[in-house]
Amino acid sequence: MEDIGLTEQQKEAIEYIDSPLLIVAGPGTGKTRVLTEKVIYLVKQGYNPNKIIVSTFTIKAADELRNRLRKDLGDSVENMQISTIHSFCQKMLQSFPEYHNFGNIFEVMDDLDQFLYVNRNYMWNFGLKEYVTEISVNELINFYNRCTENDVDPKKLVDHFKKNKGSDFEIAIAKSYEIYLANLLDPNNTRLDFSLLEREFYHLLQRNNEVLELVRQMYDYILIDEYQDTNPIQDAIFELITAPKYKITVVGDEDQSIYGFRGASVENFRTFLDRYPNAKKIELEENFRSCKEIVQTYDEFMKPHRTFEKEIFTSNPEYSKPVILYSDSRKSEGKEIVRFVEYLVQKCNARYQDIAILFKSVKFHSSEIIDELEYKKIPYTTKGEGSLFEQEEIKNLLVLMIYINSHYPNEKQKQWLFDHNILESEFLDLHEDTIEKLKNVADIYNLLESYDYATLKKLNVEQNDAQKLMGLKDLMTLQKRNSVSQLKLFYKILDATQYNYRLFKRYLEKKDADADIKIRNLAIFSKIIHKVENNTNSNHFKSFIDQLCYIPENKIEDAACIQDVDAVNLMTIHQAKGLEFPIVILAGVTHKRYNTNNQNDEFIVEIPKKLMMNKSNFNRSEEIRRVFYVGMSRPQKVLAISTIDGKYFKPSQFIDEIGLNNFIEADNFSQIISDNDHYIPNVEKSNLSFSSISTYISCPFRFFCRDYLGFQTPPGYFQAYGVIVHNCLKKIHVMMKEGKEIDITDVVKIVDMYCKDDESREEWRNELITDLYNYYEKACGFIYDVLDVEVPFSYINKNISINGQADLVIKNTNEEIELIDYKSRYAEYLSKMNVDTQLRIYNLALANRYNEPIKKISAYTFKDNRRIFFDNSNVELEKTKSLIKSIIQNVENKEFERNWEGPICKTKAGLCEFYQLCNMMEGDTKNGR
Q1: What is the set of domains in the chain, with CATH numbers?
Q2: What is the pLDDT of residue 683?
Q3: 569 versus 263: which is more confidently predicted?
Q4: What is the DSSP string of 144-210?
Q5: Which residues are bridge partners to 584 per DSSP?
Q6: What mean pLDDT is reported for the chain?
Q7: CA 155 → CA 158, 163, 194, 275, distances in Å?
Q8: Is the CA virtual torsion 355, 358, 363, 367 positive or negative?
Q9: 19 burial via Cβ count (<10 Å: 0-12, 13-18, 19+)
């Protein structure tokens, strides 16, 4: 291959494809580049891009790799399987619906969904009510996941504890796992957590040779990134697929295996050479990231603890020994670290964003440092502190939800939410004299019951304040009479208080960063409201607030932080993995947090090794060492380690292992950070869907709120109905693709599978049965062959990827390829939905998928059984390309004009959620404000 600045080790790793390959990639040795160049090399050697799998640890890593590959491979990357293992398993299960019980229609639960599901069911439905005081839901979920990832047979697990005289608690926990699996794998209502996606695909491969051979034929080469973080069942899946050719390359580093607590098995990495025939090992040892002193420090630290010998080195010049920061308490540590930060910025040409302060836990270990940063007015951003529910705007919103839902808070909710007087809050924005007048009449726990219109009039409350207060009271009255979902109430509260209007006005007119953060926090919270309601199947506030109180911090998206500003970065070492910063400070490196005394992890119930795929013990002390190593290997120029030597804390043994002679004190640091060494944030590629493109066409401001900021909007009538119709049609199309005849009994079964609750049965069931059967009879008249059902695609243009899924691709009775999208509405509504643009985007994205051109594009309106065709001539397709280009340009330039009184401001389904906000902003425009 041509010389493009690669080392000999990197070239060898890229070009070696003769047998299984283990690439041992030390920190900063360019493994992502090697992975990228190896994919390019494989394609140049004749490998079909569509038959290559690249498995990554995170979705973000998959997106970054795809973006890098586009530069060299262009559109051929779009159908390459670059994804997490979870996404790959989901795709495979959906590709072989006829071989398992739940078909290709099932729900996938993310971590928050799984928590809400288990938290709602474990007491009453999993048989664990009498053990509620002994159970942490998080620990229970970890147990379930560990069992699933090790393919533990639930019946054998129960039998084991019974035969070995296990405690009643152990037997109950084992039985609960059996119930959990049975409920999730219900063929009529399948929900798969991430671990179950893997297990079910593994079982499919194990039990069906036909599927295994088909999957082996689908893929010629597999590359696995972060191999040290794979779990036992993931490794078993790849081993099954690659046999007997074993065309596989795995990339990783045992020294950076830090996810054992989540079920990752470093043994996969360590035993690779023994398990794969003729496997070869290549080390990437040259570090391109850090200065010489840092590389030498962390390499010497880890060298005695490696399975595979390697020596990390660098050609980078010397710069500075690591800095040691000593304190005698947590409070003084905060002062010492911030003093060093100030010194770096004031004397060493550092910027705040060059500096990352890393912790084992941001939530529990950062408060003193944050207090000092705030005292010194130093900007900072945090990740992983779980502070969303501590933000004033969220607490105030929850207090108002308590009032409007006539809920009396318990002691825990009082302590959490009523630690301030909401009358004085920015959320209500009441005048000072109004606050004083209400203080004497207000019951802080039942504020809306404390006044009525007559009271406010008697108190002579200012008109705008009275309007807000009565608006909230009216909401309470309406909620008592006919309650709405908490998500709808969320928007009604923002309108009644005018809080969203005041925030948007500050942000749009003054670019106020504080308003920006508050808006983004409200958007994040709207998504959580939706998730909780969706998972509990309840609109009741008590159910909502109870669930909210139990959600762990690691299941919640972080509170928003200042965007694109010069600020110190605070995060956990786990979050910093894969990142690099000019300056890294490891905080709180004490014996209590970093030691090798704790050998093993403890689980809610110990799983017998004989039932697990991974027979080795998880060694927590090894992992703590590796976590520290990962932290030490993040900096480019400066590594500082902060420790405490005082009454309650002693320095970590790791500092002694490094040796005090290998450190300098902060006062002796005198290097200057050059202008070329400043931190450059990654600019992430924007991912859009056609739905968001359509929203932008209809109203750029709605796009801004919903798709750019991320506000969750309540599902409307046609959305809920459309999901059921969509699922039913998908099932019918899959059966047609399989060549099955469909009669009325099949249609009844399909409808009953998706009309599950009494409301949907009463409202839609009988009508759906008739409409679906009529559709099937009509479809048989125009569908000659089903080519694809719900085919995913990406259309790439500049810095934005438009992702989507085409409902159906067929050969019609004229034997032309036709692309069809299904709408649950009537044909008269198509003009408001930009369906013509949607279908042309699908046409552009799928143009190279088939051996023939797509001749027809059509929309099928289910309510009136009509098939409407649209022009997909080259002229119209070019116009669509230009339209996409202009939208992308507008999004990049942050042009989000309001389309006031446009097609989606007022519809039969009701007002747009942002209507009142726009109405007030429109008033400002007309009045010249």
Answers
A1: 8-97+197-284 (3.40.50.300), 107-189 (no CATH), 313-383+563-677 (3.40.50.300), 388-555 (1.10.486), 687-714+781-907 (3.90.320.10)
A2: 62
A3: 569
A4: HHHHHHTT--HHHHHHHHHHTT--HHHHHHHHHHHHHHHHHT-TTS-EEEHHHHHHHHHHHHHH-HH
A5: 356, 639
A6: 90
A7: 5, 12, 21, 29
A8: negative
A9: middle
Of residues 608 and 908, more confidence is placed in 608
Asked if residue 28 belongs to a known ligand binding site, the reply is yes
Long-range CB contacts (within 8 A, 24+) of 899-905: 899/698, 899/699, 899/700, 899/701, 899/702, 902/698, 902/699, 903/698, 903/832, 904/698, 904/699, 904/702, 904/832, 905/699
Percent of the residues in the chain that have a pLDDT greater than 70, as a whole number: 95
25 known ligand binder: yes
Token code pair at residue 633: 């290997």
> Rounded CA gap, 140 and 678, in Å?
44
Query: How far apart (Å, rounded) are the C-alpha atoms in residues 733 and 94?
Result: 13
In angstroms, the CA 849 to CA 792 distance is 11
Instruction: Please indicate if the annotation marks 29 as binding a ligand.
Output: yes
Among candidate residues 100, 291, 108, the one with its CA nearest the CA of residue 205? 100
DSSP secondary structure letters along 286-301:
EESSS-HHHHHHHHHH
Q: According to the annotation, is 471 in a ligand binding site? A: no
Give me the pLDDT at residue 281, please. 96
Alpha-carbon distance of 732 to 447, in angstroms, equals 54
SS3 string of 789-849? EEEEEEEEECCEEEEEEEEEEEEECCCCEEEEEEECCCHHHHHHCCHHHHHHHHHHHHCCC
Residue 384 annotated as lining a ligand binding site = no
| DSSP H/E element including 359 | strand 355-359
* CA separation for the pair 250, 242 (Å, rounded): 12
Question: According to the annotation, is 536 in a ligand binding site?
Answer: no
DSSP codes of every residue in 526-570: HHHHHHHHHHHT---HHHHHHHHHH--GGGSPPPP--SSS--EEE
Single-letter amino acid, residue 395: K
Distance CA 188, CA 179 (A): 16
523 annotated to bind ligand: no
Q: What are 465-504's pLDDT values in tens digits?
A: 999 999 999 999 999 998 999 999 999 999 999 999 999 9
Tens of pLDDT, residue by residue over 786-803, are 998 887 776 666 556 677
**For residue 796, what pLDDT is reported?**
63
Query: Which backbone phi and psi does 866 adopt, to 5 degrees?
Result: -120, 145
Q: Which of 266-280, 310-324, 430-444, 677-691 has the lowest mean pLDDT?
A: 677-691
Burial status of residue 679 (CB atoms within 10 A of its CB: 0-12, 13-18, 19 or more): buried
Average pLDDT over every residue of 292-308 = 94
Provide the angle, in degrees to the nearest 10, between the axes of the packed helices 232-242 and 85-95: 60
How far apart are the C-alpha atoms of 667 and 665, rounded to whole Å? 6
Q: What is the pLDDT of residue 688?
A: 76
Please name which of 793, 882, 785, 808 lies closest in space to residue 846, comparing C-alpha atoms.
793
- Find out whether 590 is annotated in a ligand binding site: no
Closest alpha carbon to 312 in 255, 233, 237, 381: 255
Are 913 and 713 within 8 A, CB to CB?
Answer: yes
With a pLDDT cut of 90, the percent of the chain lying above it is 65
pLDDT, mean of residues 227-241: 95
Give the pLDDT of residue 67.
80
State the burial class of residue 5 (Cβ atoms within 10 Å of its Cβ: 0-12, 13-18, 19+): exposed
Rounded to an integer, what distance in angstroms lies between the CA atom of residue 712 and that of residue 31?
Answer: 38
C-beta of residue 487 within 8 angstroms of C-beta of residue 536: no
pLDDT at 348: 96
pLDDT of residue 636: 97
| Residue 716 confidence (pLDDT) above 80 | no
